[in-house]
Queue: 3 jobs
Job 1
Amino acid sequence: MSDARRRSPLLSWTVLAPPVALLVLALTWGHHIDTWLAVVIALVLAGAVLAAVHHAEVVAHRVGEPYGSLLLAVAVTVIEVGLIVTLMISGGSESETASLARDTVFAAVMITTNGIVGLSLLLGAIRSGTARFHPEGSGAALATVATLSALALVLPTFTTSARGPEFSGSQLTFAALASLALYGMFVFTQTGRHRDFFLPVESRGSADPDGHAPPATTRAALVSLGLLLVALVGVVGLAKVESHTIESAVDAVGFPPSFVGVVIALLVLAPETLAAGRASRRRQVQISLNLAYGSAMASIGLTIPAIAVASIWLKGPLLLGLGSTQLVLLAITVCVSILTVVPGRATRLQGGVHLVLLAAFVFLAINP
């Protein structure tokens, strides 16, 4: 009997990790976490992240690109948005919840457009000398991210209908509808007539865009889809469970409380980061950029409509406008990203520039 027949697929760690994460989440949600338990949760969280990446790749291999990267980005963001809205409705003081959506969304934008993009370009250039991608698809994605960021995070700083960096009710409604419209148009473009703009660029010696192994069966893909959703719920939920430990650690080292949101955003975006890095190592940089810009787009395009609906029950201000330092970082990111995307190829230098911008964001979040 062969090893493949003796080894049951139900005993694979990628199958066991998601339900274990969900079980740990159910047992620890709302409870005080000791240090030793926080370490165990961190290990379970890491396993859930790796399992999510595996199952996302199985599903992506079955449905093809760009549907695979779109599915992972939307799945993570939907769960993240649910967590944000839940925290805004039921948790924390007014001062803590007022800027929660803004801080989380901005952190997601900076991590995706600088962290994931920079890492992907660096790994792709190291592997092939030059990272190649479609400027048409990546440029369209970047334009959508920039427009969504301006509508949701920049304009509230300068509007005058409401006091402070926030929208009035009608302005928030417009921003929500515009965000949904933009995101919907992009998804239609990405999956419709211009789908080729979002497929990996074929180059000599590169792997087949869909990988060497044959696609999984429909049944196996559906199982992986279910396990992917379970793993993502576990990742986001355990990140929230760990937030109290993270808050204590942040307070102990003297960092500002807002830095907790950056750490949680890093944890939540870990599946996309790992998936993008693996795609770049296979010379599929376009898939990595699809994940990065798609995650940034979904984070804004789904969060703003969700909090617009939640604002019916929310009390107190809803601060969306960025501060001066954040505005400068966003402006530099957009300008550098344009210069990176337009040629359709990038060297290690461009990847390094984006990673330095991410480092600047993290440093200024620690030392504003």
Job 2
Amino acid sequence: MQNIFTILIRNAVLASLVWTTLPQSAGATGAEPTTDPLVDPAPCQAAATAKDDDKIIAICGALIDNEKTLKIDRVRALIARGGAYDRKDQIDRAIGDYDTALRLDPTLADIFNTRGELWYRKADRPKALADFGAALKLNPQHEAARANYKSLALELERLGAQMAVNNTPSFNCATARRAVEKAICADPELAKLDRGIHTVNIWVVREAKTPRLRRAIQREQDAFLARRNALFGRPDYDLRKAMKQRFESLVGVDGY
């Protein structure tokens, strides 16, 4: 994936910078400074600044588990510990901490992007793409998320093309009856596009989070095929363009 490992290295220090990149709590928000040493964020902050992963996990973990901890401090501690888990290659635990941080504060574009990179490392491309997209919705100028999103979308496009076996489409050309199907069979590029659309649609439907969303995605696919069949042959209908647009809408290339 183009540039993603460079981005991963750069983002590995995210947790250690979290106290300078998130809003200030306590006095900065008008709340009274804490006098309880058990909920004092300073030791967790110090561990994160020192990049001492073992201390981060222990000290920030105690802060996370204390019900008296302010929400913003818990978010910071979760991000710091998530970064420590990441550096220890405990990806599932890192994702778990980022999950909780984003439930507490769903406006953190950087964390969506970072969690997306972890999903990519786990080879879960749908979740990675969703997180990169979420980061871009929050911050359309987020360069790392934009690069990750574009790179992954192009990767998915290449995977779809590779699934075209001997330039064959998703259907049997020997039994093709429609004029549009015969046109696809006669053109290797269209055959690859058809195979890619079919394969990625199955994948997207399978990975949809709810039955309702799965049905909606399949209805879009059915509508695309119906339009393709009805409009093919008209002077103003560009089959190649329509198929490319459908593929791009499935993998999310458009707009990025």
Job 3
Amino acid sequence: MSVAPGWYVDPADPETRRYWDGEGWIGAPIPVDATPPEGPPPAEPPAAAPAPPGPVSPAAGHPPAAGPAPAPPSPTGPAPHPGGWPPHAAPPQGYGPPPGWPYPTWPGRPPEPRPHGLPLAGYGARLVARLIDFAVVFALNAVVNGWFVWRYIQEISPSVEEAWSRIVSQERTTEPLPPAGDQASGLQIAILLIATALWLAYEVPSTASRGQTFGKRVMGVKVVPVSADAPLGFGRALRRWNTLGLPTLLWFCCIGFLLQLVDAVSPLFDHPMRQALHDKRAQTVVVQLPRTPAPKNDRTTPPGDTP
């Protein structure tokens, strides 16, 4: 690609214009809104290079040479970019690619971010930690919510049994199923409210203070803010939880479960920080904590004995 000589907006500093002579930028920049002169800018006098520090030679009265001149580029090496720098390398300070040329990109895959010096937690570790937490919350619901669930099953059992008998006998009828009991709707609301409250009480306080639930401690992962390695605090932990936990109230129409499923798989498609939707709302990230080394044996060998 050949660019005609002329005055162009400097890609390295959009507030200025510089003159492109077909091979590189020359001359001093001018403001972008100024009227450029006709033709190239006047040549600048070369600046005198400062003398390198060192002892003065008594014979010649000049400091010794700083070293041998740099060797010319190898003819077998990569061809230079038309802008004057090798491929995949950043341009020199104050210079940019010629007009119409893209900026060089990072060669290959960029390195994975390490928030606060810690590696990002893998999706497998996060999933196992979440399943452990679900098991704990389910056990709490079995204790606190068990009676409400049992009463709800009794209220809807006539409808369920009639529907199952029609499926088994392959009966074709337009008669409606028996209605559920009068308390079925109230019990369903109570069950979902209690389940949501138990999940909130289990996860939010521990995440706010330590960044870890029981499942995260088992798997060695931790939730930290993106901005600083500090406790989340109750407000941030609540914002993180309610994006995933509040849809539990919509389980009666399956919408809540679908929202939670999308949130659960979202880290697989987020790069490079692997944030779930609830992480993005709270500006948090999940990191893998370093494994603590096993303690060394402090016993000393008695004098004269060989191990």
